[in-house]
């Protein structure tokens, strides 16, 4: 969770990164007094790109002295689940776990009595109600919701407006498209993609793609 005196960097200065900057600005307006250093991105030169300040690439930034790294928290702003997982591993290889992940909960998000994993984002209007567990490095995008007694895995991405009803189990690295709905007690296996607007009424196996209303599997890898 964010606290007042943190020093934070965001890894990834693409579209999702630019959203994160806006969320940090919202935090500042509502009283967060931490320090945002800027963006770490291997694909962009140092300096300003529009409103984003690029402060270096991963090898350069995360090879700093131990005492410096221990004071830094980081959020990985890559929307693709696989890319986000790969980047987390890369950062850990460079700094040996010295840099702790940052969990960002937007001021307009609603969090009940649930557990939120390290490095996870709750975007504006996201809702997590009671007795649920959200894994590490997940993205709950704008106005997505997770109801009670759910288990959401690591590196999951719930796109804007996605709804997960009660007692659901969502495996690691699942991608749920914008506006999709997962009804009560459904299990979705790891690495599965649920298309935008789908309505999932039955269990979906791992590493599948499911679309439609009701959702049906059209591909399994």
Q: TL;DR of this structure?
A:
With 221 residues, the protein is of the alpha/beta class.
Strand order of the largest sheet: 7-10-13-16-19-22-24-25
Globally, the shape reads globular
Question: Taking all residues together, what is the mean pLDDT?
Answer: 96
How big is the Rg?
Answer: 17 Å
Structural class: alpha/beta
Order of helices and strands: EHEEEHHEHEEEEEEEEEEEEEEEEEEEE
Instruction: Write the CATH architecture name of the largest domain.
Output: 3 Solenoid
- The parts where pLDDT drops under 50 for at least 5 residues are none
Number of domains: 2
What is the CATH topology descriptor of the largest domain? UDP N-Acetylglucosamine Acyltransferase, domain 1
Strands, total number: 25
Reading off the top of the CATH hierarchy, the class of the largest domain is best stated as Mainly Beta
Helix content, binned percent = 10-25%
The CATH H-level homologous superfamily of the largest domain: Hexapeptide repeat proteins
**Major sheet, described briefly?**
8 strands, mixed
Total number of helices: 4
Termini distance?
36 Å
Proportion of β residues? Answer: 25-35%
């Amino acid at each position: 969770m964010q606290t007042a005196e943190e020093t934070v960097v965001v890894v990834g200065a693409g579209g999702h990164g630019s959203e994160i900057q806006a969320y940090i600005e919202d935090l500042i307006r509502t009283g967060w007094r931490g320090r945002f250093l800027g963006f770490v991105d291997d694909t962009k030169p140092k300096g300003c790109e529009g409103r984003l300040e690029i402060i270096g690439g991963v090898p350069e930034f995360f090879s700093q002295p131990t005492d410096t790294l221990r004071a830094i928290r980081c959020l990985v702003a890559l929307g693709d689940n696989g890319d986000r997982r790969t980047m987390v591993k890369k950062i850990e290889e460079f700094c040996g776990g010295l840099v702790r992940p940052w969990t960002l909960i937007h001021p307009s998000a609603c969090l009940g009595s649930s557990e939120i994993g390290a490095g996870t984002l709750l975007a504006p209007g996201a809702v997590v109600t009671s007795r649920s567990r959200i894994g590490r490095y997940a993205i709950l995008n704008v106005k997505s919701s997770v109801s009670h007694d759910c288990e959401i895995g690591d590196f999951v991405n719930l796109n804007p407006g996605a709804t997960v009803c009660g007692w659901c189990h969502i495996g690691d690295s699942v991608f749920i498209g914008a506006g999709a709905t997962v009804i009560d007690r459904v299990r979705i296996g790891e690495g599965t993609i649920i298309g935008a607007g789908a309505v999932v009424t039955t269990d979906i196996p791992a590493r599948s793609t499911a679309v439609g209303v009701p959702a049906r599997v059209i591909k399994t890898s």
